[in-house]
């Protein structure tokens, strides 16, 4: 009987979790924290046209006393291409990470990239881009 009473609560949790699944928890739990500022960590593009690649840039500022090197930037799928500053970023200076989404699928999208630096080569920091691709005309 108790399990039947809990059923509506579980259904509510599942639906509530789905509604907020497209939001990334903002913050950097890696060893980059306090050494690197990511501006922004999540980009909301709004609506974009179908089939026209959409490009955004993330600023990466070195707030440490050592050079920052972006070792790798990984995309979760072939529909998202990344490019980044390959040269060391001196203290107080900034670099950039460009993310391009191909926009070949209608509807909402949520793309995450993982950035690995010399400050924490074992863990990537997640940056994301969200939006909606308009229907194909």
**How much helix, percentage-wise, in residues?**
10-25%
Number of helices: 1
- Listing every helix as H and every strand as E from the N terminus to the C terminus, the arrangement reads HEEEEEEEE
Sheet with most strands: 4 strands, antiparallel
CATH superfamily: Immunoglobulins
As a percent range, the share of strand residues is over 45%
Give a quick rundown of the structure.
The chain has 137 residues and is mainly β. The chain has one helix spanning 2-19, and strands spanning 36-39, 42-48, 54-62, 70-75, 80-84, 94-101, 107-117, 120-133. Helices cover 13% and strands 47% of the residues.
Q: What are the SSEs and their pairings?
A:
Elements: H1 2-19, E1 36-39, E2 42-48, E3 54-62, E4 70-75, E5 80-84, E6 94-101, E7 107-117, E8 120-133
Parallel strand pairs: 2-8
Antiparallel strand pairs: 1-3, 3-6, 4-7, 5-6, 7-8
Provide an overview of this structure.
- By secondary structure, the chain is mostly beta strands.
- The chain is elongated, with a radius of gyration of 18 Å.
- It has one helix at 2-19, and strands at 36-39, 42-48, 54-62, 70-75, 80-84, 94-101, 107-117, 120-133.
- The chain has one helix and eight strands; from the N terminus they run αββββββββ.
- Mean pLDDT is 85; it is low at 1-21.
- The termini are far apart.
- The strands form two sheets. Strands 1-3-6-5 form a four-stranded antiparallel sheet, with no helix packed on it. Strands 2-8-7-4 form a four-stranded mixed sheet, with no helix packed on it.
- Helices cover 13% and strands 47% of the residues.
- The chain has a single domain, classed as Sandwich (Immunoglobulin-like), CATH 2.60.40.10.
């Amino acid at each position: 009987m108790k399990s039947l009473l809990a059923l509506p609560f579980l259904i509510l949790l599942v639906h509530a979790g789905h509604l907020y699944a497209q939001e990334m928890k903002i913050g950097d739990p890696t060893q980059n924290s306090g050494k690197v500022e990511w501006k922004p960590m999540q980009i909301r593009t709004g609506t974009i046209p179908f089939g026209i690649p959409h490009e955004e840039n993330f600023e990466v500022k070195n707030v440490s006393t050592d050079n920052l090197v972006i070792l790798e930037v990984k995309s979760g799928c072939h529909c998202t291409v990344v490019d980044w500053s390959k040269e060391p970023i001196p203290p107080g200076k900034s670099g950039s990470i460009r993310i391009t989404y191909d926009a070949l699928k209608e509807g909402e999208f949520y793309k995450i990239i993982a950035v690995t630096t010399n400050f924490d080569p074992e863990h990537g920091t997640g940056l994301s881009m969200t939006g909606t691709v308009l229907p194909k005309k």
